[in-house]
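stage 2 :: seqdesign
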C-alpha cells in the first residue's frame, strides 16, 4: 500500500471513520480510492496536481446523515480535511488534501424534479451532465455549468457562470434552497425564509460555512432545442474578434437578446495562435443577429454549429483534463483596446516558455453584463458584490497547462507575474474592476475582498455565527478563506 504521511489526528480519524461508516472509507491502494483520484469518463480530478495528492483516507458518504457523522469525527480528532464535489478545483488542497481526509460527495448525486416542474433538487456530487440528461428532454432548464463534467456543488458555491446567465444571473442565483451540514453536526436548510443570511452567504461564499448536501434549483421552461457550437478561427482575426466582443457585450447588456451568449477564447500552443468561439442561443434560434459581428468574420477554420441539446453543447465545451494546470482571473470594463493589450501581454509573458512539453495558454473572454448582474436581486441577492453594477464587463480566465513537474515553478511564477501586470495595466488605463471570480482565481488572489467591504464583512459575520469555532477556517485549509 502507498505510504502517506498523515497529518495530526488523521490516522485516528480514519480508524474511527472506518468503524462508523465502514465501506464508505477507502485507503491508498484501494480500488475505490484510486478510481476517485483518476476517475473514468472524465470524472476524476481535473488537474494532475490534485491527482497526485494522497489523503490518509477518503470517505464517500451515502447520505447527508453520514456527512454529519464524518464531520463530527474529523472535528473531534482535529483532523484537517477537504471536500470534493466534482474535483474541478485545480489547486492542491482545494478538493483533496495531502495526509488529511478527503470527503468525496460523488455518491450524493441525485437529480429529482418536483411534481410541478418548478424545482430540481440536486446532490452536490452530481455532474452537470447528470442534470441536463434529465432536464433536456422535458424542456426544462436551470442555471447550470457550461461544461458537462463540472460538479454541481463547487460550481454553484463559487458563483457559477451559465449559458442562461443573461436570463437568470449567476448559477448561485438560481438556488432556491441549500441543505447544509454545519460544524455542529446540525442539518439545516438555508433559503429566503430560513437562515436567510446563510442563504445569501453561500451564494459565492464557497466552502466556509459547512458542507452542502443538496441544492434545490429554480427550474424554468425552455426550448428543447438549443443552437450553437464551437467555431475555430486563425489568430489573424483577433482585431475583428475584439470589436465583435465589445459590440456583443454592450448589446447584451441592454437586454436586447437574453437568449444568446458567447465565449471568446484565445489559445496559444507554441506553434500558432487560434481563436475558439462558443456561440449559444438557448431558444434554438440559428445565427441570431446579436452575434452577426462574430459569425460574419471570414476564415472560419472549422465549426460544430448545429441545432442540438444543451447536454451536447456542454460536452463539446469540455476542455481536456489531467494536465498540470494554473488558473487566474481578472475583470475590466468592456473595452476592445484594453482587451487587445491583455492578449499582447500574455503573448509577451509566455512566449519564452512555448517550447516546454505540453505547453499552452488560454485566455477565455466572457461578458459579464449589467443585465446579467441585475438578475441576482430577483432571488434574494448573493455575495458577489455585483448586484448594483451598472457597467458591462469582461471577465478573463487565464489557463496555463504543461506536462512536466519540473516546469511547475517557472510557469506558476510567470502566471502570477502576468496577473499582477494585468491588474496594474487595467488601473493605469482606467478600466480596472475589482471582481475576482472564485472558480477561476489563483490562490494568491483575494476573492472575497473583491466582493466589496460590506459583502466581505458580512461573509465573516455569517461564518462566525454558523461556525463559531472556525472549523471551516482552521481544518479546511483549501480554497479561499475568510480569515485571510
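stage 2 :: out
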Amino acid at each position: 500500500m502507498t505510504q502517506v504521511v498523515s497529518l495530526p489526528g488523521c490516522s485516528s480519524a480514519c480508524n474511527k471513520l472506518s468503524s462508523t461508516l465502514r465501506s464508505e472509507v477507502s485507503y491508498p491502494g484501494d480500488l475505490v480510492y484510486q478510481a476517485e483520484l483518476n476517475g473514468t469518463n472524465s470524472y476524476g480530478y481535473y488537474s494532475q496536481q490534485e491527482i497526485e495528492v494522497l489523503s490518509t483516507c477518503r470517505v464517500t458518504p451515502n447520505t447527508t446523515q453520514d456527512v454529519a457523522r464524518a464531520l463530527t469525527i474529523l472535528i473531534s480528532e482535529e483532523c484537517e480535511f477537504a471536500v470534493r464535489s466534482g474535483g474541478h478545483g485545480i489547486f492542491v488542497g482545494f478538493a483533496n488534501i495531502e495526509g488529511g481526509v478527503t470527503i468525496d460527495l460523488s455518491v450524493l448525486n441525485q437529480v429529482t424534479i418536483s411534481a410541478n416542474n418548478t424545482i430540481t433538487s440536486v446532490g452536490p456530487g452530481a455532474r452537470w451532465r447528470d442534470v441536463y440528461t434529465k432536464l433536456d428532454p422535458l424542456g426544462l432548464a436551470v442555471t447550470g455549468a457550461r461544461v458537462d463534467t463540472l460538479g454541481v456543488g463547487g460550481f454553484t458555491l463559487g458563483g457559477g457562470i451559465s449559458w442562461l446567465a443573461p436570463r437568470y444571473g449567476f448559477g448561485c442565483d438560481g438556488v432556491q434552497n441549500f441543505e447544509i451540514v454545519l460544524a455542529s453536526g446540525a442539518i439545516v436548510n438555508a433559503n429566503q425564509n430560513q437562515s436567510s443570511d446563510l442563504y445569501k452567504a453561500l451564494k459565492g461564499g464557497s466552502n466556509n460555512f459547512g458542507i452542502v448536501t443538496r441544492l434545490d434549483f429554480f427550474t424554468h421552461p425552455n426550448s428543447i432545442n438549443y443552437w450553437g457550437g464551437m467555431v475555430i478561427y486563425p489568430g489573424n482575426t483577433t482585431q475583428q474578434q475584439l470589436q465583435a466582443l465589445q459590440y456583443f457585450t454592450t448589446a447584451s447588456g441592454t437586454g436586447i437578446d437574453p437568449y444568446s451568449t458567447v465565449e471568446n477564447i484565445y489559445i496559444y500552443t507554441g506553434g500558432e495562435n487560434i481563436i475558439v468561439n462558443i456561440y449559444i442561443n438557448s431558444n434554438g434560434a440559428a445565427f441570431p443577429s446579436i452575434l452577426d459581428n462574430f459569425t460574419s468574420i471570414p476564415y472560419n477554420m472549422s465549426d460544430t454549429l448545429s441545432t442540438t441539446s444543451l447536454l451536447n453543447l456542454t460536452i463539446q465545451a469540455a476542455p481536456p483534463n489531467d494536465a498540470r494546470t494554473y488558473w487566474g482571473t481578472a475583470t475590466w470594463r468592456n473595452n476592445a483596446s484594453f482587451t487587445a493589450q491583455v492578449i499582447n501581454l500574455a503573448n509577451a509573458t509566455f512566449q519564452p516558455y512555448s517550447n516546454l512539453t505540453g505547453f499552452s495558454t488560454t485566455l477565455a473572454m466572457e461578458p459579464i453584463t449589467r443585465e446579467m448582474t441585475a438578475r441576482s436581486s430577483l432571488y434574494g441577492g448573493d455575495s458577489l458584490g455585483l448586484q448594483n453594477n451598472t457597467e458591462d464587463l469582461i471577465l478573463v480566465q487565464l489557463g496555463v497547462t504543461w506536462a512536466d513537474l519540473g516546469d511547475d515553478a517557472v510557469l506558476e511564477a510567470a502566471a502570477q507575474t502576468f496577473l499582477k501586470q494585468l491588474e496594474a495595466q487595467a488601473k493605469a488605463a482606467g478600466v480596472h474592476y475589482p471582481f475576482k471570480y472564485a472558480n477561476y482565481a489563483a490562490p494568491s488572489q483575494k476573492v472575497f475582498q473583491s466582493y466589496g467591504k460590506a459583502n466581505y464583512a458580512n461573509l465573516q459575520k455569517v461564518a462566525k455565527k454558523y461556525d463559531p469555532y472556525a472549523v471551516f477556517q482552521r481544518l479546511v485549509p483549501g480554497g479561499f478563506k475568510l480569515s485571510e
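stage 3 :: structure notes
- The longest strand covers residues 324-333.
- The chain has a mean pLDDT of 95.
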